[in-house]
Amino acid sequence: MQKRLVLDQEEIEIILRRFCYQLIENHDDFHNSVLLGLQPRGPIFLDKIVAKLEEISGIRVPSGYLDATFHRDDFRRRDLPLKANETKIDFLIEGKKVILVDDVLYKGRSVRAAMDAMIAFGRPQKVELMVLVDRKLTRDYPIMPDYFGLRVNTLESQYVMVEWQDKGFEKDAIWLTEKVND
Fold it and tell me: N or C: which end of the chain has fewer CB within 10 A?
C-alpha cells in the first residue's frame, strides 16, 4: 500500500495551536461555548484541543463525546450493524455555541447525523465545525468546516489515515493512502 505523508507531528502541533487561538478570538471567555468530539475518531483530537486551550488560556472548556450512530442515514442499509460508541455529555447545549470536532470531513454524512444527535441535549445557539483535514471534493451534503487544518483534493479511491501516539503509533501523522479493496 502506497501512502503519502500530508501532515507530520510538528505540522499537526502548529494546527492545534492555530485552532486554539482562533477559538479564543471567536469565543471570548468560553462562558457560552462547548466542544463536542464526534465518535469514533474525534475524541482524541478534541482532548488535544481542550488540553492546549487550557494551557494557552487557563480556561477548561466544557467538552464531551457525541455518538451519532443511530442517526446515520445508512444505519439500516449495512450488511452488519454499526457498533455504537459512547456518548459522554454531562451538560445541556441549550443556547450554547457548539463546536463539533472531528479528524476528517469526508462526505458530510457524519456531521449531519451529529447535528441530529446533539438535539437530544438541547437546541444550540450556533454550531461550528472543526476538522484537521477537509476532503473538499467528496461532499454529499453542503457542509463546510469553520476551522480546518488542511484541505486536500482526494479521489473516491483514496483514504485519509490519521495516526495518533495516543493510539500506539510512533508519532502523530496524517497520511493519504489508496483504499484497500476487500
Answer: C
